[in-house]
Amino acid sequence: MEKIQSFQITGMTIAGFKSYGEPTNLVFGNPTVITGGNGRGKTSIADAIAFAVTGLPFFGERGIDRLHNEAQPDVSITMNFVDEAGTAHVLTRTRHKSTMSILYDGYTIRQMDLTELFGEKDVFLSIFNPLYFIEELGEDGKNLLERHLPLISHEAVLAQLSDATRASLENEPLLSPDTYLKQKRADIRELEETIIYLQGQKDLTETQGEDWSQIVEGLSARKDAFTRTLEKLEAKRFDGLDTKAMEQRLVELSARYHEAAQDDSPLDAEILELERKLAARKAEQYQSAYTQAIADATAKLGQLTARFNMDKQAFQTFASGMTCPTCRRLITEEALVEVRTGLEQSAKETVAAGQEQRAQLNELKENDAKAKAVFEQFQADDVAKLEQQLAGLNAKKSEDSPVDSLRTEIQQLTADLEYGNLSESEYDQMEECREELRECAADLKAAQTVVEQKPDDFDEKIKAAQDKITVLKKLIADVAIYMSERAKLTFSALKMNKVEISLYDVVKTTGERKDAFKFTYGGRRYDRLSLSEKIRAGMEVSELMKRLTGRNYPVFVDNMESVDDLANVRPTGQVIMAKCVSGTPLAVRPVRPITLAERQAA
């Protein structure tokens, strides 16, 4: 059914409704004046018109049973009216006991059909009853207005902004500015949390860097000490010895030995080969395959130890009122238990990881010791075997063999070139020092790797996050201006003579929209107005609802005796005015009949 944009009431028949028991015929014009003393049925006519259209009385209250006439159980309201095309219509609503029926131009229809014709009840009653909007709807009136306010286009709002603000927002998705601002504020909070996290990580990295710097410093000092000891022993080893002459002498003895051996039996060649193998086997040094792995495991264990000490110190010293070095939050009494629990859990995890790492380190050292023991055992077995073979061969030779004497001298000279001026214990110390120096160098390399690892550029990341926050805050400020301008354009549709309505306030700094439904008349609150002022204010709202909804319906002004005139309101449609005239019977008088032109423009 097509909606009725405008209509004027030409007549009514009321029966069984409030004070109207028997059928009563009424004729309406524009305007229509209803007079009579108190209790004569003036307001009942307003209830009857509202009931015919909405099924509810003038102020929309429930409890239809009270509308029945006490002597007549059946209610019947027939309203004759003409629409904007000048077409006459008849609307009849009857109620028999609890059964309601509606006839429109002779056809049975439903209430939802009437709603489609005349609009929702709040729209109809806000136009028909000047006091309904503010006294009955209250805050709900805000929602009603928002549903019927004209949509302000994005381009229209942008046109009101400065060039800079317009350029900032023209490509932003502002279909729902409130949602947009909510998301941007969430982005800022996330960036702020990121900055706190990065600052905590920066501080933690700097602290760990200081610890590892101390480890590197200690290892460097230890390496220098081993180096000095080794240099001292190596300097003493060949001090005053003519090693070149000794080496030349060894070459000569070897040549003589070779020449004598050629003259000797093949047994000498075999002895010489055994001596070479024996010397080579004795000279072999254990080469560990676990040195680097042990150094790496030691470095990792050091990291875990440093982390545990930090957690332990933090656990022992944390108290409410302090600032957490990791998250930068102020630790309250309520959060202290949570923080200490987190630190305790972190320490437990570090201890577990450290135990696992120490187990790996111990396993590596154990494997290294086993490998070294196996090497030394094999070396000892081989040496013993070669010495036994050599002793057997030598026994076969004569005691004054020149080859034997040459061999003895070569062995002594070889030992002198190996030990030099060092005693056997000093030589062993030198070898141990070399081994310690190799291990220390591996540990130092591992520690330096940790120290020299390039940490994240926290300052750069923090600055990038701060720059993003600055951009987002500028966007939020621009959207606040946008929403303020859109509110101005929106509220311009609510422009009235003396009534001012505000649906919400826009916070200039954040753009946040806060509900703030305000209704004033001449700058004064509604609850402080006189009855005549309330009626005038209601008439302005009635005209506003006509303008917003495109529906021009009759207006019923009750208590008109308290109003001098409606000249300042200038109602645009049919006006029905009820005045209390003491002691007089009810009279419904059309001041001027509805003309054909009014019917056509109803």
Structural class determined from secondary elements: alpha+beta
Distance between the termini: 19 Å
Q: What share of residues is helical?
A: 55-70%
Strand order in the sheet with the most strands: 2-1-4-5-6-7
Question: Could you state the order of secondary-structure elements as H and E?
Answer: EEEHEEEEHHHHHHHHHHHHHHEEEHEEEH
The major sheet is characterized as:
6 strands, antiparallel
Uncertain residue ranges: none
Mean pLDDT: 85
Give a short synopsis of this structure.
The protein is an alpha+beta fold.
3D architecture notes:
This protein has 602 residues and is of the alpha+beta class. It has helices spanning 42-54, 111-118, 121-128, 132-137, 140-148, 154-158, 163-169, 177-237, 243-263, 266-283, 291-317, 333-396, 402-419, 424-452, 458-492, 531-549, 596-600, and strands spanning 7-15, 24-27, 32-36, 75-83, 88-96, 99-104, 107-109, 499-506, 513-521, 524-525, 555-557, 575-580, 587-590. It has a 6-stranded antiparallel sheet. The protein has a 4-stranded mixed sheet with strand order 11-12-3-13. The chain is rod-shaped. The mean pLDDT is 85.
